[in-house]
């Protein structure tokens, strides 16, 4: 690996962790985060080890059928009590949706359909003032939380019974802080 100031874990460092979680997992949180390489949940939440987080990542932290099934597995099978939908500062997928909302931009291949669920969030905050991408990112995270609760009876029932909490969050690349909001 290039010397870029990252901690490098050897197989020996992880052997104890692997042995502890090899038979089962019980993550304390399920995290739906962006695929952006600057946003690794395992590091953002304190350099966590194996088995602590159940992580799903895609551009724009969107909840399609595969993601919903994964979230349901985390809640119903693994018993993860917390589901976090985490957007982040300067998200490329949200920025693209903002370009659609403000300039009627079009994107090639599967990019356009991928960001389509973010466009309504961008449209809803387009005239709010401030940083459009940041506002749209927060709004999209809130809408994704609502979508999860609306489309997943498993998660909604668990939330109603107090077994799981579903929250939106925003990661600030500049400060390194994660903000949780409603």
List the helices and strands and how they pair.
Elements lengths: L10 H11 L7 E5 L7 H4 L8 E5 L7 H13 L4 E7 L3 H12 L7 H5 L3 H7 L6 H20 L1 H8 L4 E7 L6 E3 L2
Parallel strand pairs: 1-2, 1-3, 3-4
Antiparallel strand pairs: 4-5
Helix pairs in contact: 4-6, 6-7, 7-8
List keywords for this structure.
182 residues; alpha/beta; five-stranded mixed sheet; 8 helices; 5 strands; 44% helix; disordered N terminus
Number of helices: 8
Q: Which bin fits the share of residues in helices?
A: 40-55%
Regions with little confidence, pLDDT below 50 for 5+ residues: 1-9
Biggest β-sheet: strands ordered side by side in the sheet? 2-1-3-4-5
- Rg, Cα atoms, Å: 17 Å
- Based on helices, strands and strand pairing, what is the structural class? alpha/beta
Binned strand content: 5-15%
Counting DSSP E segments of at least 2 residues, the number of strands comes to 5
């Amino acid at each position: 690996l290039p010397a870029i100031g990252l901690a490098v874990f050897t197989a020996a460092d992880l052997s104890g962790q692997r042995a502890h979680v090899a038979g089962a997992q019980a993550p304390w949180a399920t995290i739906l985060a962006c695929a952006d390489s600057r946003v690794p949940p395992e590091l953002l939440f304190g350099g966590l080890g194996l088995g602590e987080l159940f992580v799903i990542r895609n551009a724009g932290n969107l909840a399609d059928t595969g993601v919903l099934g994964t979230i349901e597995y985390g809640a119903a099978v693994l018993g993860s009590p917390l589901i976090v939908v985490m957007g982040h500062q300067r998200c490329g997928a949200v920025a693209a949706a903002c370009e659609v909302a403000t300039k009627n931009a079009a994107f090639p291949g599967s990019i356009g359909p991928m960001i389509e669920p973010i466009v309504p969030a961008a449209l809803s905050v387009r005239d709010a003032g401030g940083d459009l991408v940041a506002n749209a990112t927060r709004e999209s995270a809130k809408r994704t939380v609502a979508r999860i609760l609306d489309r997943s009876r498993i998660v909604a029932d668990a939330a109603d019974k107090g077994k799981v909490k579903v929250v939106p969050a925003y990661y600030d690349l500049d400060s390194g802080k994660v903000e949780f909001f409603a």
